[in-house]
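ok here's the first one, seq then struct tokens
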Amino acid sequence: MTRLHTRIASGDHARLLRRALLAGSAAASLVGMPSVVFAQDAETDEAADQYDDRVIIVQARRQDESLQEVPVTVTAIGGDTLDKFSVDNVADVTSRVPTLNVQVGGSGSGGQLSLRGVGSSNISAAFDSAVAFDFDGVQVSTMRLVQAGFFDTQQIDVLKGPQSLFFGKSATAGVFSIRSANPTSDWEVGARASYEFEEEGYLVSGYISGPISDTVGIRLAAQFNDIDEFQILQPGTPAVNQKRGLKDFIARATLEWEPDDRFKANLKVQYTKNENDGAIGTAEISCGANGRADEVFLLQGGLVIPAGYDCNTSDQRYFLPDAAPQLAPGIPTPSKAAGRNGVPFGETEIWFGRLLWELNLSDHLALTSTTGILDMDAVDFDCYSYAGVFPGGVPGGVGCSDPINSLEQLTQELRLTSDLDGAFNFMLGAFYEDRTFIFDTAQNGVNISFLAADPITGFTYDWDKTHTTKTEALSFFGSAIIDLTDQLELSGGVRWTDETKIQTIEVPFLHLFLQGPGFVAPGFFSGPITFQDDNFSPEVTLRYQAADDINIFASFKTGFKSGGIDNSALPSNSLSAAALSGDFSSLIFDSEEAIGGEIGVKSQFADRTFTLNATAYYYVFTDLQVQNFNATTIQFVTSNAGELTTKGVDVEWGWRTPVEGLNLSGNLSYLDAQYTDQFLQPGGAGGTIDLDGRRASQSPEWAGNIAFDWAVPVNDSIEFLVSGNAAYNDGYITDEATLNDFVQPSFWTLDATVGIGHPDGNWRLSLIGTNLTDEIFVITSGGRPFLAPPGNLNGLPVGDDLVLTQNRGRQVFVEARFKF
């Protein structure tokens, strides 16, 4: 076998880690009920000490502020709530945050976050997420960091609406922020172990935390999760692994240094490794309106393979065949998929480092620096036909690929913040990002090796291609807070952003039988393809304190998410046309912008035992970045929606009842999100369909939850714990391809926990159930690849089967934890 080229290997982890500078600052430790957080943990950082124990601290404006006073719509979930319900995956948070939609898994971006009906495609890793993912103060540009979940978490904050002023790029729809736990003031050791019965998985985690000296604290934490039956395949599926499992390992070290009252520093280093038996997540196949399992249609009908699946989309039994023997052996090297005989797998390794320091330049000025580094190497192999079985049960998986994703990211932010005695305070800041992303994959789009392997190399793949994208972003921002009166506050600011992306495309290998018209030539190199854009994102807010515990605010906000160059273009069709003309503008998608505002009230009554917050909002998104997949032509379609308008109301409440230890909380959201300008997609008469006027995907009109948490003292050393959360969603459209895409009907989910433990949390035994009713719902949908087209000479019905990505089913844990 001829080796044509050397794929770009993993980055130098040690070199990148040494780029982090010593320093950091602490963040507040918080716990609470779902959605409305009631009280701080006793072990908070000193930043929280200025507030009483019923006040929740958030960092919605990049500084510590009371949740009830900050004029931003924030849903906060404390670490205690995450522990009680064994929430350690981003997708599990959706039952606590209405209108938040999460898909984790798959190739491409590795996941998708959407909020209030606005998100980014999970297909392409070229898109930044419209809901920024902020991990310990660093914006992370890959969803693969969340595939292994999270642990040892201090708090999760979900900020709704555009947040470009303080969070910059990729925050047009909101921010999903995770803050991990910091060192404690006293030595503490904790551990937990759980076993999950439905997927037959176990989890063990632990930490040790405390002061090394009077000025230095340390926290070491690690978690291992091993699931045997993440997916169970449909009986008769031609695959080596009839049960697909996964393993996650996460380890984190945190150092905190405060030599005096003028300087403090915090350094976090985390290693994540994820292994699985295939990149395809929980994806079922719907047989569409024709009610049949459509054949895999290849080579213009020269080869038709029976689908094999049973069209049952609710039994959580997946038909995911291994690669067909004709396609399995010859993968362009080097690739970890070589020598595995077409058996799916996935491996991801991530190093993450964050360095935060704060220096008090004077009694009234503080300088804060946040340095973030991320180094990721991910490879997986799977067959994206979701179908195919030959007579005798021989695997017939086609459309296989082995994407190698490599990412190196460095970010640096500086903020100068005032704390003046007068009515005026300000923040000035600068942000820089340098990122290199490499997407290198061998693919079977035509599956030409059913005729014969490439005569020259012996490779059985159609092509190998590499997209290398370098991103450089620079932004400056400034904000001010002016106390017009004792009750009236005016705040606002503006961020200027300049972002440049340069991509090169290489196709070192193309199967000999495909060489000719309609494909680029082997050895193709695009040269640099450049995208550049800049933007001013202003914001202004007026807050009125009507009473000690009632705050009313009105905000005008804008958002910006840079465009870029598509990295899903195949050597056929769009890429070959661009190569012939020398014009690669068809691969460029425009920047996404948002403008609008919201009016809200945050209130507490009855000695702060009852909290009621509400926000009404209206936003218009222009050039929303969208990518779909044409299942018949096997091409990716990247476009910008003309305009999406979202409006609605969010309400959240919490009540610390007079019953000792009983807390209640809930959320209710009304959402109206629809396309309000021309949005053309392929299909229909004239070759296009205009989605103008259609409701946006992942946008339920009504969604909400209600939760309770009751700690019942048995005696001085034992308490009984019971918690529950019921979430409702009235349904939504799951795709953005036609006027009648798949609609997920309304559904309920139910979580509950019962346990017994020490009142101070020294030990606890729990039985935890999530999605107890085993409700299976669809998150996203799209056409199943390799469907029979209209007018085919084989006389087959037009293929209309759909790939439905779904949630995980019921999970039941028994868990033991302790700390001392």
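and now the second one, same deal
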Amino acid sequence: MAQEPQQSLGRYELLAQLGRGGMAETWRARLVGAAGVTKPVLIKKVLPEHANDEAFIAMFISEARISATLSHGNIAQVFDFGRMDGQYFLAMELVDGQPLHRVLRRAAKTGLASMPIPLATYIALEMCRGLHYAHSRTDDQGVPLHIVHRDISPDNVLISYEGQVKIVDFGIAKARMLSSFHTEPGIVRGKYLYFSPEQARGLAVDARTDVWATGLVLYEMLCGQSPVSGTEALVMSKLAHGEFPSPREVRKDLPAALNEIVMRALSVDASLRYESANAFGDALAAFLHSFAPRFGTTNLAYLVRELFREDLLQQGRDLAVPASFVEELSAWRGTQHAPTRALSKPVRIPTEAVPTARMPGRLKSEAPATPPEPEARSSRGWLLAACGLVAMVSLAILPWVLDAGPPPAPPPPPEPVLPQEPLGDVGSTDSPGQGFVPQTPEPSDPTSEVEGAAVDPREASIAEYREPTSLRLDSRRHVFRAPVDMVAFSPLDESVTYSLWEPAYSAGLGQRAVLEPDAHLGQPIFYLLGGDAIPAAQRQGVVPARPLALQGIRSISLFTVGEPIKADLPQQGVSLRDSRERVERRFVFHPEPMRVSALDGFELRGLDSRQTYTVSLAPVGEGVFLRGRTGGASNHAACVGWAPSSVTPKLDRFGNTLRTPPVRFFLSGTREVVKVRGLQVMRCGLLDDDVSDNEGELEVRIASADARRARGPSPGASPRDEEAARLYAQAQRLSRAGKDHDAFLLAEDCLSNVPEQASCLLLSGAMQARLNRMDGALERYRTFVKRYPAHPETARVRRLIEEYARTR
């Protein structure tokens, strides 16, 4: 809101406050020079109440020092820095436009759910150019400054009414020239939604961190939404592990080439990303040229002007926007992504040759034109109609002329898979509500086949519990791999003895006779030691509550194992003490981003949550060697156990679903026995960071600890199981009667009672395929294949998915 002119800051006259938030405020101002010469500027000054905040002032000064050295068309320039009346201020370029986050929000409100592909690509391209300039800056002696923005987000990208793209706010950038401005281990800065994996873990960052954030901004522009949502810790965890859909899964019409570019920029492994912002920009430029060779940069200016037309008019400004662009914008709003889909061959058919507002199917939301009254029809009207008809016919046959004939019609979709067996005795399985349980091939034979289709080695590592059970962990396949970037303490002196412990570690965890899912149960932090002199048997373990003496170590990696659970997010502190200097270092452990996937472990299903089981280790032959035979045997394993969410959930006092964290434990040696209860599924694996020198196998033995364990099948079906069986039988009858839609609805009702029930998944997929809802059918079929890898129908469903993919 505009305010009365304020007192001057030296040569600057403050005109109107533009914003106030955090610890600073921004003002529209005017630089008053000699002879009445003036220049519009933006003044950013520290609020008086924060003038004594040393940390913030240091960051504010760092922004001034860094930004003042940057002069590039895609970076908002800083002209001056000063202090007056005890207030620090920056004088910087006034960008006449809007921040990108407001552009996206306004676009969504006006019916444009996502940015047109050429415009989104162009904005990201311009961001890359500005960032590369900052990344490659050197000092006066030519030494690289290694400037990294570290806070790229739509808030810090401005789009001017002239179509310029400007990056602002280098306030938390890190540069070598600012030796005092550093980040302690475990401390992260920036907006968590745009954290790179290494930034989320509090590790050192470089230019590839900005590549990641730019990729996320591009994803958001293309899809109209962020890749993930949820709490801060959950978002950081999913992004850090790459657990989000690709842009093309969200926006179906996105070209595969652009989808590949975005996903490379969002590689979890920094070494797989574009090595620089310039390389990322070059890839975007090549795509933009091939996809829209006649793209004009003024379209970005027109978009911002049109979106904020009312705001401009209130300011007495009427910036021109061509009627042709307004018409194109209406088409974008009507069909979201149709303008880019219409030009499958942009080089062969120029944009101006295709009247977009008249293309069939372009404006789905447009009301049909009302035909004129007979008396109003004139010879001129008939002439226009005839010309329009000729134009439509020409457009219809133009692709045939250019391609020398119409394209061949795709083959019809294959016949959908229907369940070949009845629902079965849903109450007779060890894992409630799964219907007939697939019989898995022997885990020791990863090449076994089901109906001629090779089974994925990971899928073959699944077994059903039969009393007693033993799992063979292969030292190359069944490994929970800890990435090298999860190092928490490094470098360390191998000649020094260190003490490692977690002061807040729950003492109850180690004292409990039986481990079971419990929201109040302390979760272990696993460690992996680095150092050539460390025996393989001592490299891994759980950080204890009391100091553990370690010798000959170079580094310590910390991590947790398993999938994220909302109740499993509290941060924990790990301490390391140098015995020689008696200096204590502390690392803030974030469980979600510093998490190792358990998907490569051996999975055991069908445990009875009411039973208590003993878990122990036994070497197979000479045992496991994780650092070659010279490093000695290492008989250790980690396990994660849980009960699926399909089991009746608990509710807290507010009525919210309460999900308890999984049980995680570490087995050390062949004499240790752990007792667990309340589990239905368990995954076990070895802990390592490199499997290239691994040898041998290790056996995990699971047996019932209850002397009076009931034999035979479990009790009868639950009410949910019985209702699912009834719905399935009714859906089958409707399917045979040709009532596909009704059968589909009942199959979905079945799945709402018993999630991922095999027969209902197949029936739902088949009915959706008959209704031509291919996306839904494929989703159900893929869930079936993932959930039941060794089911008799799985091979046929896999082939069906492949056939569908070829016909689409």
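notes on #2: The longest helix spans residues 379-403. The chain has a mean pLDDT of 75.
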